[in-house]
Amino acid sequence: MKLRIKNVELRMKMSAILLTCLFLIPYSLFLITCSSDRSSQVTYSEDIAPLIYQHCTTCHRPESAGTFNLITCEDVRKHAKQIELVTRSRVMPPWPADFNYAHYAGENYLSDEEIKLLKTWIDNGAPEGDEKKIPLPPLFTAGSMIGKPDLVVKMNEPFPIKSNNKDRFMMMKLPVELDQDTFVKVIEIVPGNKKVVHHINAHLVQYNPDQKKDITKGNKLVDTEIMDKQEAFARLDLPNDDGSYPLLTPSVTNYLPGVVASIYPQGIGGYKLSRKSVLLLDNIHYGPSPIDTSDQSTFNFFFMPSPPTRPTFEFILGTSGIAPVVPPLVIQPNTVRTFKTQYTLHQDMSLLTINPHMHLLGKSFLAYAIKPGGDTVRLIRINSWDFRWQYFYNFKKMIYLPEGSTIYAEGTYDNTASNPNNPFDPPRVVAERNGSMRTTDEMFQLIVTYVPYKEGDENISLETSDKSK
Ligand code: HEC
Fold this sequence. Notes:
By secondary structure, the chain is of the alpha+beta class. It folds into three domains: about 10-135, no CATH class; about 150-310, Jelly Rolls (Sandwich), CATH 2.60.120; about 315-460, Jelly Rolls (Sandwich), CATH 2.60.120. It has seven helices and 21 strands. The strands form six sheets. The chain has a five-stranded antiparallel β-sheet with strand order 6-3-9-5-7, with no helix packed on it. A four-stranded antiparallel β-sheet has the order 1-11-4-8, with no helix packed on it. It is globular and about 75 Å long. The two termini are about 25 Å apart. The structure holds heme C. Heme C binds near residues 59, 66, 93, 108 and 388.
């Protein structure tokens, strides 16, 4: 591996400076202060490498989201100016949630001190320091953010996308055949072409092998805009051989920009995987593309040996959910407007994960809960919505909300010409149209993942150190 590259020229310069310093010390008080100044000692090997590995390398490595590597001193030096800029402005690492409001497992943002440290190092010419002291870079699995999968399923051919600037909504089936039934902890979606994959929702269709001879028959994909669901299911040959419907485990995995699959502690989450199953992508949304391109996405399955003791559940507030958007989501041109939704729980719950969702006009997002006694529980605040980074936020510990608690969510939309992401110029009425998920229509959702509450849940940490199991 070519991980340590010496910058010979810079080292020579450094030693020349050092020699001069040594020579001048007896004559100059100023230089004594210089040599004891902490800032002149910030080096890649001791200060910067650990920071980069922790905050940047997950995405900036081969086969990952970032467009270039940030591993070696040379990698970081090459982008030093840009790095100074994007860290100071907190564009990188991407972390839209306000860390002054709430904290999450695996959260990734830089402290003010870390930002200063990077700047000092860059201002000082980005010295490498003692090369031997560079820690080993973290180990990652190629093609995964979370570990080594037990089964990798890939779309069997690239899906072509035309340069017509149009959204495409497809339904696709990916047959999975195994020797025996098993259990899945998590399915990770790795988009083949991040520029066009806007979202993927997937369900598992689980067959009783006696009721379905061949799960590979039928179309592999259909365009859901030109037919209804029943017809799409028939074309994909999803029903059993006798026409009845197999078991469907809904919403087993989702992808939105920036999402990393959530892995919960042992026993929480997961589902059975029949030895004859179909991963049903219902649906896969390709955003508009100005160029001819294609996508071939991958699905990483992580197995577990036994059934989950506590399967997880999900509900949605807002668009297509169990609680309406108030007022209805119609955003007039040249306005900035806030919409709300709320829902009162009918059972004790332990919240695991939340996912706020809006499109291009999103400006800010707020969600909190009020318990029956009046206590407020902060869930999330996003001050500056970024369409590109729509994480599923896992709480540090499960959040206990007793029956009668109300969850409130507020989303503010900016439909003025000064919103640089406004898809229309001049601005037009933008609305939630019939549950349409088009990028240029809007949505307002808070997706909540939970398990029914059990005593002691509030002490269970959701930070996972071993991400593979
Ligand atoms: C969650 C994944 C992720 C993490 C973590 C991350 N980046 Fe990035 N970074 C990206 C992606 C993807 C891009 C490509 C541009 C985009 O889509 O916004 C990018 C772009 C950049 C750019 C180019 C910006 C530009 O204007 O073109 C710089 C510089 C950068 N990242 C530095 C960093 C640094 C420094 C860190 C750590 C402190 C970091 N990134 C952490 C995903 C990430």
